[in-house]
Structures are given as C-alpha cells and as structure tokens.
Amino acid sequence: MLRPAGLMSLAVLCLVSNFATAADWATVTDDGRAIKIETDKLEAVIPKNNPKHWMTGIEKGSFLDKQTGFREVGDGLMVVDWLMEAGSDAEWSEQVIAPDGNGVGRYSWFENFTEPERQEYAKMSHGSSNRKRMVEGPQLCHRMKAVEPEVIRGDDFVAVKTTYKFEYAAPGRKPGSQWTQLIVFPKGARYFVLMDKVDCVNDSEEMFLRNDTPGCVRHVNGDTFSEMYLSYLSGPKGLVIPSKEFFEPFPPDLKFGYRRDTHKLPSSFIRAYHLRDPKTGAAGPWLAGLTLDPEVVYEAWASMRPGGIIVMIEEVYGKPIRAGQSFSAAHIVGYVDDIPSMHKLYDEHKGNTKLVVDAKGWKLQ
Q: Cα–Cα–Cα angle for 274, 275, 278, nearest 5°?
C-alpha cells in the first residue's frame, strides 16, 4: 500500500504526463512551471512562472541545437521589456507604482546606488541621448506575473501563444494594452518563428516595444563567441565585428547603434553572433535573429555593459498610434551555419510583420 507521500508523487507524475503530447518529431511537456518543446532539431523552454531568469521569450540556457550541441549563451531569447515612447520620465517616475509596490524600472539593488552611480548606470545602459519613457508597465521580463500559454499543435509544427495585459501606466495614460507573443517551431527547422503584437489602449505619437533580438551575450573576453554580425551597418554586406570590440564596457550611443531616422533603410535586419566552445575554443554555429521587415525597427544597439554582458536591444514600431489600434513585428530566431544562410532564410520571408496560426497551419503575413 502506498503511503500518502507516495500517492502525492504519483499524482504529480500523472499531472505532468497528462500535459505531455508526443509525435514522431516533437514532444511538448508542461510541468506547471514551464512548457518544454523538443523537436527533431531543437529544444526550448517557455516559462509560465518562477523563471530561471526572465519570464518572457525562450528561457535562459534552454535553446539547444541538436545538430551541434550548442546552446544560447545569454539570458534567454526574444525577451520583452517595456511599452515606451520618446521622452523622459524623470519628472514623474516616482509617481508610478506597480501593483507589487515596485516603482518604474526600480530594482532593490538599484535603490542602494548613490545618485552619481545611478547616472552612470543609466548612461552605460541606455546612453546619454535620445532618452525614452514608459507608457505602460510593468517591465514584462522582470515583473510579469504567472501566465498560462496556449499550445497549438499541427502536423508539422508546434506553437505557443502567450498574452499579458500591462497593469499600470504613466500619468495621463491608462493601463490595459495587451501584449501577445506567438512562437512557432516548424518541423525540420533549427529555428523558431515569433511575433510580438501589442493591442493599444493609449494614443502615442511614437510608441514602441523594447525587446532583445535575438538575446544578450554573456562572455569573458570573447570566450563564448568569436564575432558578431549586423547586416544593417556598414553597407549592403553588413558589418562583422570581432569579439575583442566587446572586451571593455561602452554605452549604446557610442558605436554599433542604428536609428531609423538617422540611417538609410537597410535591405535586411539581421543580428547574429558566432558561438564557440568556451573550454576548447572550437567554432560552433551562428545564433541569429532576423527581424523580417527592416522598416519596423525604430532603434537598435549592441552595447557592452559592465559585468560581461552584451545587450542586444531592439525597439520596434515607433510610429503614431491610437487607442484601439495594434502593431506587430515578426522575427525568425535560430541556428545557421554561415552568413549566406542567414540571408537566404531572410529573403524567403522578408517583408512580414504578422504571424497567424491555427491547428491547420501557420503563415507569415
């Protein structure tokens, strides 16, 4: 006869099993904390609560390329941050209080900084020019509450849809805009397709959503990557940057930055880094993030913060919008063998900003 503890363990095991579905090429498992997707080419985890690092996007360290054995080396992929607009919130940031009692963008460790330390942190994190302000919060990656994503299965894909409504707003605005992140894992692909969409409840002359595309890079003197590629800088062939350029911290407005109002519209918007084994130095695949419509990118940077982290911020949309309207951006994120392969994939899907899916299939629009 099982003791009560044994009965409880059996019940938990059954719960996990009941959420697991299998096919010859993909398995989806929901253990209550997160959803694990395993396809014939990839593994990835999408958190529901108690994340290892951030709540949005693909969980830190979980994105595995089965072909090479390499994983993402940052804090997760396609992590979503704020709903923002141009300007500064310095005059009223202390007035905006989140439901959990935290202020706008405030962390417990940040409260212990002196004012000069805060200013230096802000400079290194966001630069000294072109300041931004929050329209609605919270900062989703850091403070989003538990979610219940929807899993959609098809014969040759698995999709996960997550939604969340912003809970508080800046003075003169109201909360309630809805963020939707839709992720599709196609059969036979070393990448996923993703859309971030915002249904707005506020007007703005320049609203945008901030994210990490594809994600940040953690390293010590380039031990985890050998070079970075930005297709939208330095002419039609793009810019290949050796890892040594990221050995010392620098702010986002010093170098490797892009703004739609100051740069020529590029033919592609690809951000990628070339992985390598930190123990042996052996070259791995490229991990690339493709934003499929270059015109949707408002601003982007790749800057080195203190602490060994390259921040790959991308801000999408940045145009006038009215309450009741929506905007979206579509991306492909995954492993490729070389730069020509990135462009081939990009050209096959270029120009799309939307992703739709049901049990019958998925498509970019």
A: 140
Q: Whole-prediction pTM value?
A: 0.89
Decide: 139 and 151 in contact? Cβ < 8 Å.
no
Please answer whether residues 312 and 72 qualify as being in contact, where contact means their C-beta atoms are separated by less than 8 angstroms.
no
CATH code for the domain of 235: 2.70.98
Q: Distance between CA 335 and CA 345 in Å, rounded?
A: 11
The closest alpha carbon to 63, from 79, 84, 49, 50, belongs to 79
The first and second tokens of residue 263, run together, are 């740069």
Sign of CA dihedral 200, 136, 144, 252: positive
Per the structure, the count of domains in the chain is: 1
| Residue 65, domain member (yes or no) | no
Beta bridge partners of 265: none
- pLDDT digits 0-9 by tens, 30-47: 999 999 999 999 999 999
Q: Which of 338, 344, 282, 313 is nearest to 125 (CA)?
A: 313
